[in-house]
Every structure is written in C-alpha cells, then in structure tokens.
Amino acid sequence: MNSPFSNKWITAVLIPLIGGAFYATSFPMEFAPSFPLGTIIGMSLLLYSLAFTKNEMLERSIWRDLLSVLSFSIGYNLLGYYWIPETLKVFGDIPFPLNWGLGLFFSLIICPHLIIFVLGHRLYKKFSVKSSSLVSSISSRHLIYALALTLVERFTPQQFPAHMGHSWLSFAPYLGLAPIFGAPIFSFINFWLALTISHKLKYNRLEKLSLITACIFLAANIALPLKKTDEFDSVSHNLRLVQANIGNFVKVNSESGKPYAFNEVYERYLRLSTQESSAPIDLIVWPETAYPRLLNSVKMEIDPRFTPELMREVSRRTNAEIFTGGYDKSSIKNDYDFQTEYNAAFHFAKDGRLKNKFHKIKLIPFGEGLPFGSLNQYLAKYIQNISFFANGEKFTLFRTQKGTPFSASICYEILFSNFIRKNLNTLDTQPNFLINLTNDSWYGETSEPEQHLFLAKWRALEFNIPIVRMTNTGITSIIYQDGSETERSPIFKEVVQDVTLKTRDRARTIYQEYGIFPTLFIVMTLIIISLVLSRRTKNLD
Predict the structure, then answer these.
(1) What is the pLDDT of residue 484?
(2) Strand, helix or coil for residue 410
(3) What is the pLDDT at residue 5?
(4) How far apart are CA 442 and CA 424, in angstroms?
(5) Of 462, 488, 402, 397, nearest to 435 (Cα)?
(6) Contact assessment for residue 484 and residue 226, using Cβ atoms and an 8 Å cutoff
(7) Residue 379's pLDDT band (cuts 50, 70, 90)
(8) Do residues 355 and 394 both lie within one domain?
(9) Which residues have a Cβ under 8 Å from the Cβ of 211 and sit 6 or more positions away?
(10) Are residues 25 and 53 in the same domain?
(11) What is this structure's pTM?
C-alpha cells in the first residue's frame, strides 16, 4: 500500500496545489506584489502533474487527473479568491464558518475549462489508435495543446474570468498586439511556455520554437506601444466622478425604505455632487444602484416631473447632466419580487428629463439571480437573499450633451470580453468611451476591487476605448487605451474627482472586428512552421 506521502501523491496533489497558488500571484493582492510570471509557473506545475502520453494514462485513473485539477483550483482559490467568504458574509448574511466552507466549495467551479480540457484529452487518447503526423513532433503537439487550452479557457463560462494571458497587463503600455489579437493570443503564448517548462521538467527535453516565438512576440509588443487619445481633433468632457462611499448597512436600509437611511444617501450625493468646481461640469457620474428607490423609466421619459428630486436638484445647481445606476421597474408583476425590476443605468438631461437607460444583461449568479432556468420563479418564493433581477435585452448608445456617443456596462459585465465586443458591435455608431458602473462594497477591504479593476483594463486595451470606472466605495478612475489611469480614489473614502476626458471618433479594432480568428491564423502558421522544421530535422537525421 502506498504511503500518502509517496511521490505519486506529491505529484498528484501537492505540486498542483502549489501551482494554483503561483497562478494566483499574477493578479493583484493587497498583501503582496503581483508576479507576472505566476500564471506560467503555476500552469507548468499543473501540466507536469497531468499525464500526456497514452502509456502514462494507462497507469493512472481519470480521477487522479481530476484530483490534480481540484488541488490546483484549491491553491488558486485560497490565495486568489480569499475574499469570497467575506462576500458571502456581507452579501448573503452567511456566518462563519459556513461562509468559509462555501468559499472553499468555489474551488469546484473556479476552473471549469481545465476540467473540460482533462476530460477531452483523456477521451482523445482513449479513441486514438496512434498519433497522427500532425502531432508527432513535440512542438506541434504542444501547439495543439496550447490552442485547445486557449479555446476552452475562452469559451467555457466562468464566474470571474482571470485568464492566463491577463498577467501580461504588467507590461502595459508595451502591449501593442492587444487591439489586434485581444487577450487570447497572450493566453496562448503563456500556455505554450507552460507546456515547454513542464516537458523540460518531466523529460529533460527543451522545445526551442516556443522560446523563440515568445521572444519575437515580446519584441513585437514593445515595438508597438499603446497610446491614449491625443490632443489632436479630440473633444473634451469635464466629468465629475462621485464616490459617495455608501456603506452596506445604509445602502440596504435605504433600499428597504428606511427614511433615515434614504436621507443620508440623498444628502451625501447632493453635497458631493454640488461642490464648487474650477470648470463647468458636463456630466456627473454616480455608481451602480446609487439611487436606492425604484424608478420608472417609462414615466420619466414622458415627463421629467417623474424624475426624482435629487437628480433635478443636482442638475439645477450644477447645470450638468447625470449618469447613474439605479433600479428600474419592469413590466412583470407578482407577489414575491421575481424579476419585477432591472439593475439599470440612467442618463438624465440638465432639465431632469430621462434621455436613455440601459438594463443590465449579464447578471451575477447567486447574487442577482439563480442559474436554474424555469425553476428560478419557484425558488424565488422561498429564497429571500437574492435580488432576482429581470435581464436586459439590448445594448444602449448614449450621447453626451456635446453629441459624443458612449456605451455602458454594469459591474462584472466589464470582465467578459465577448460581452463587451457584442455590445460595441451591436450598436449602429461606435462609442467613443465606455462607462462601467460598479459597487464593490460587498467585498470589504480585500483584493477584489484591485482584481476587478485589473481585469477591466483589458477591455480598454482590446477595443482601444477609454473606460470611466465609477464605483461606490472604490476603486474609481478613468482607464485609458494604453492601460494607464487617472488618479485612483482610495478604498472606503468619500471622493469627488473632476476629470477632463478627451475623446475622438473611434474605429473598430481588428480584435473587435474578427475576435479570435487572427489568433487562430497565427497558431495555424506556427503549426505549419513546426511541421516543416520537424520534417527537415528528420531528413538531416
């Protein structure tokens, strides 16, 4: 009988556990600096623990491979997503130690793409009689594995998609290939390097093509640095970003109709929004669900008298438009608040009239709804801690008073590249900037606000679009197309930022136009090069 401390269990459990922790270090942590190479090292340790040849697979069960993935996920979860238990405690009112148990349970779904890859790889090996010429060389085999990993990472639904390639953000603005290929090409390069390292560790054989390609890739990014909008032919917008720092206790009570809590929210937004400014304000921006009472966009579009007094008073004093998050009444009626309202963004003109609105489309599972389809309506009768918002159905093109088009996303919607790409491609006119309304107050003083901001930056790079990131408790800033920012607001502080945003007409990036296809073209080219080199080597032998 094997000892639990035998090499087999070290390889299957301990090494991927350490790998998961390394992977997490590539993303912001409040207690330590991030390590850009963490994703590569972490993934190489996981791939080292997994079987890659048919003979190796015959010696181990599929359950052992899945155990390795689970161990990786636990290491990744404990270091990278330690803030989930805090969220469950605040957002779901789940006490200790149950919140930590459920937080650990998140390890089962944190990396679904790796589970799919392992199952698909085992299935392929089971039914393949012999390796084809396409995968006979190490380089071509690693290229195909790296592509497969990139594709499953890209298209497998994830709750918080922190991908392999996102760790390259540390090199901004020297990421010139981001608007061409998006994050997928960076993930592909990292997966390929991880496969090379794991192969070297396991078989003491080094594949040079991946190293040469990675050096060329790095040089190309450096040679084409990203740039933000310049002064030439740009339109200036004076924005006021109001981070009111409304705590969860006050926020929940104000939404429940408690007069003292609503009055505090009202007073704080009125006071902060109407401070003196050195220049005329064009647009005041408030965060997600800033206004706590249910609004009715249908009525407000018809008659500005239905617009709340707070918005009308702020606009009257500042002569500025307002863009804010709030709750919008839906057409659904029932007795248990199932999809009776939207999580929404509203754009008010200076006279208080509602110009346009956006209803959040991508809702957060277990926070704004449940992923159980038609069962949700039945469960809503018994589960009280979930909002059960209605889903928005369309993207909205807003326009400033100067006529500049812009779009909006709410909270985690900004994390999903395909979602933002669909947003931009659906609209008839290309937005010149994007507003992302967020409330990260539920996560406490953890790394989540930093991680949320870190991943949101990729949308600015991929689509060459400035992003106004407005939060309730921080971090608030404007993200530019080169990955730089305006001054960040501190966490859990009242902050008013008056910022001038310069925009110009924006063309679609290659990545926005063609998605992952440019990456596929590059990978196919590399496979052809690999096959040619492999054939030449055999001929020389």
Answers:
(1) 95
(2) strand
(3) 41
(4) 29
(5) 397
(6) no
(7) low
(8) yes
(9) 193, 196
(10) yes
(11) 0.92
